[in-house]
Design goal:
The complex is a heterodimer of chains A (154) and B (262). Chain A is of the alpha+beta class. The longest helix of chain A is centred in the C-terminal third of the chain and has 14 residues. In chain A, helix 2 packs antiparallel against helix 5 and helix 3 packs across helix 5. Chain A is 33% helix and 15% strand. The N and C termini of chain A lie far apart (44 Å). Chain B has a five-stranded antiparallel beta sheet with strand order 4-5-10-6-7. Chain B has a four-stranded antiparallel beta sheet with strand order 11-12-13-14, sandwiched between helices. A three-stranded parallel beta sheet of chain B has the order 1-3-2, covered by helices on one side. Chain B folds into two domains: 46 residues, Uridine Diphospho-n-acetylenolpyruvylglucosamine Reductase, domain 2, CATH 3.30.43; 204 residues, Uridine Diphospho-n-acetylenolpyruvylglucosamine Reductase, domain 3. Bound molecules: flavin-adenine dinucleotide and FE2/S2 (inorganic) cluster (2 copies).
Chain lengths: 154, 262
Amino acid sequence: MPSITMTVNDKQVSGDVEGRTLLVQFIRDHLGLTGTHVGCDTSQCGACTVHVNGRAVKSCSLLATHVDGADVQTIEGLADGDVLHPMQEAFRQHHALQCGFCTPGMVMSAIGIVNDNPDPTEREIREALEGNICRCTGYHNIVEAISAAAKEMR
Amino acid sequence: MYDFEYQRAISVDDALKKYADSEDARFLAGGMTLVPVLKQRLDQPSNVVDLGDLADMRGISQEGNAIIIKAMTTHHAVNSSELVISKIPALAHLAGTIGDHMVRNRGTIGGSLANSDPAASYPSAVLALNATIITNNREIAADDFFTGMFDTALEEGELILSVSFPIPEEAGYKHFPNPASRYPIVGSFVAKTSNGVRVAITGAGPCAFRVDDFEDALTKKYNPEAIRDIKVSDEGLATDIHASAEYRAHLINVMTRRAIGE
Ligand SMILES: Cc1cc2nc3c(=O)[nH]c(=O)nc-3n(C[C@H](O)[C@H](O)[C@H](O)COP(=O)(O)OP(=O)(O)OC[C@H]3O[C@@H](n4cnc5c(N)ncnc54)[C@H](O)[C@@H]3O)c2cc1C
Ligand code: FES
Ligand code: FES
């Protein structure tokens, strides 16, 4: 069984996995970080989005072994104690969630979007959300939240 | 997903050797096609040889009048490359239309070409720009590379190392996205070169193909009006729940006109 080591939310972690273990399984089942969700398992919905070496990725479509040695950030690593990350705070302020299932992936994806484009237009945000599906909100408040968070993050 | 033996290559030679030494191996690039395929049990290799550590398989450079993109370069890297944006902006644009930003952060040009999905975006650019695919043992002209649905001229265990794109005078890409998956239902890449115009279509048939009638007309006169009345036959084009062959044939004309900049 391959043994892997990576940095997750600034802590070094390791574990024994199978070749076929997915990154999202390692995060949820081995590390107990269940904020990262599995919505579709077919690479479409983005609920499983985390950051690997600073870039947003779908953790249901990556082998854990493939990112051995990488720096991984999950939704659990965003807040600083009780102080939410500006993107989390904006989602709260703008009522950008209903059931909340898509939210961890939305927030991680949104941070990736704003890192690449610090001043996105509404249209750019809508297009960039291509890889994240929400069954509840109709996206409108998500777009507003990302726009507001982008101002905070600049 | 069935289990397999996972192996990480430390060099191109090591990757080729690990592949050759296994019973039934697959190379792993970005995994954006291979991992979903393994999850659905559509494929069951004995070994997966990961190319992820091979830094010398990534990067974009200019050599003479060509842009060289190494196989492990991500769609994001092509989309954001200053060099590609300045020399072949249509290619940078195309890379930015693939999937979503998470897919573009992992998916690679080598993986996309080796896979030759009938709806993959890159094959249209490779064919229209008359690119050359450079592998571990030869150079393959774009016209010889795409041989059918999920089929290419690559031999068993042959590794794509890079793709060389001659810089065109002018080029454009336009696609009609599937409303759900966003893969092109029809995508058209048009390139104007010193040797004439080349037009390549993806999404419509089993693999990317050129449209001779459009090329002849556009070589005479590089203007969308030159092809407006040229009908494309729907013979051999795909019909599925998204679009009929007849509709795809119609879209080939419309997307090509838009690619030229209607
Ligand atoms: C949600 C989603 C949307 C997508 N939308 C689009 C789209 O709109 N347009 C589009 O074109 N694609 C799309 N894709 C596919 C994406 O572009 C893939 O990244 C690409 O097809 C495969 O590249 P990869 O690096 O991930 O390869 P992998 O999945 O790692 O490999 C794919 C195949 O190629 C082989 N291979 C990989 N590298 C090499 C090499 N250097 N030499 C020889 N063989 C090699 C592998 O063995 C495997 O068989 C989408 C994917 C997803 C998940
Ligand atoms: S669970 Fe990964 S994209 Fe849906
Ligand atoms: S809030 Fe329910 S899926 Fe997005």
